[in-house]
Each structure stands twice: as C-alpha cells, then as structure tokens.
Amino acid sequence: MGLEDLPPLREALAEHGLLAKKAFGQHFLLDLNITRKIARLAEIGPGDRVIEVGPGPGGLTRALLETGARVIAVEKDQRFRPLLEDLAQAAAPGALALEFADALIADEAALTAGDAGHVVSNLPYNVGTALLIKWLTGPWRPASMTLMFQKEVAQRIAAPVDAPAYGRLAVIAQATSEARTVMEVPARAFTPPPKVESAVVRLTPRPDRPSAQRLDALQKLTAAAFGQRRKMLRASLKPLGGEPLIEAAGLDPRARAETVDVNGFLRLADAWLAQRGQ
C-alpha cells in the first residue's frame, strides 16, 4: 500500500471516531490542495529532514511525504496513533518517524540527529507562539520554518515598525530571521472552522543572527519596553538603565517602544551588555 491508497482524511477520522479537541487547540486541515501548497511554500524536497508539530490526522504530513522529505511528526494526542501509524506504513521505508511527546519540551536536536532540519507545521493555536519563541531563541536552529498561525499572530510576527501589530514578537522574529506572510487560509478550510482566519509565515535564519547573549538581552529589553508600550522608553526601561542606557544606544528617551525598529533594539541590547561589562 502506498500513500495514494490511503482513505480520504474525513473517512479515516470517521472510522476512528475522532473529533478535534478544543483543549489542544486542534483544527484539522483536510484539504490536500491547501496542504500541498504549504509544502511547496516550504521549499522542501527529497531527503530534506522536516519536523512537523501537531500532525493530527496527517493531512499536512501526507503532503510533506509526497515531496520525498523525511518527516518527524511530533504529536501530543495519542488518539492519532493509529492513523499516523497507518500513514507511516504507507510511506516509503523510514520516511515518517513518529514521536508522541509534548513539542514544548521535545529535544529537536536529538530528533534530527544533529541536523538543522526544517519545521513545517499547522501549529496548535494554544502553543504556537511559545513554540516559535523556542525555535527562534533556543539552541536548536532550524534551517527554515513554514508555520501556520492565527492571522493575528502572523501579523505580529511580520509587522513593520510603527504598525499596530508591531511588538516584542516582531522584534525577536525579525532580529533572528527574515519573516514574511506567504499565504492566508480562510476559517472554512478547517474542520471544525475556527473563529479566526489563519495565515502561513515563512521564516529563514538571518546570516547576522544575534549571539545567545545578545538575544537574551534583547528578550529582557523588549519584555520591559512592550510590557508598558504606552510609556516612554525612559519610564519603561528605567529598571534596566533608563535614560543613560537609551542615549548610549542613540535613541530618544521620549520615544515609545513601537517606534523603535529592530536595529534600535539591538543597539539597546549592546548598550545594556556594555553597561554590565559583558
């Protein structure tokens, strides 16, 4: 049996009596035309190693396998084990590895045997942002990420400075990656339909990615600055150095966080490290 012999996803779900769990933020993407488009946008091909988080019934997994990629599917919900095991048996030998675990604590370096790998996922809504921050700032650095989020979250990732959606997530994402929205997906494409629209964001690592130390400083500064985004920087950053810190970074202490671009925050991180003798 090959992938083409598998039953349609709706039939497979009905056969096993499976419904999406609200507690896991599940919304199934069963339209293979959409999942194949996501796989194309991910720019993966034969032999590429891919981590997929939250495969559920395996709609996107099928599309990824069709490209010839080697997929590691990380699924927390044990209910999907029979469907995913059927998919693994139908795929080429060794093409699909299953890991039933919580992706928030999974060791991606171990899963990929030290390979950078790619991440392609329709992320569960309730953990999507946390997973993105983990991959952007953690020790394991994927070669690329093609991820579906709620449209509001996608806008926050790719937002330019001074846009309403610009904030801490945009700064961290854009300091580490080139981030752009590549596809929008209507709610009706999912089963059950969520109350919000979705979008796919593609992130590729920047060659000048900040060091771990600089990135840690960036996280602290953006948390303080955007935690009180209506205040001027001299007030929101007072516990971290206040006006001397801000002026050392070449910024106006009267500016607000949403008007400071990514490079401005990186200069703040450098000034903060310099003040601490690091």
Largest sheet descriptor = 7 strands, mixed
Number of strands: 9
Question: Count of DSSP helices?
Answer: 12
> What structural class results from the helix and strand content?
alpha/beta
Major sheet strand order? 4-3-2-5-6-9-7
Overall mean confidence score, pLDDT: 92
Low-confidence stretches: none
Give the N-terminus to C-terminus distance in angstroms. 59 Å
What portion of the residues fall into strands of 2 or more residues?
Answer: 15-25%
List the helices and strands and how they pair.
Layout: H1 9-16, E1 28-29, H2 32-41, E2 49-53, H3 59-66, E3 70-75, H4 81-90, E4 96-100, H5 108-111, E5 118-122, H6 128-137, E6 144-150, H7 151-158, H8 168-176, E7 177-185, E8 190-191, E9 198-205, H9 212-227, H10 233-236, H11 242-248, H12 262-275
Helix pairs in contact: 2-3, 6-8, 8-12, 9-12
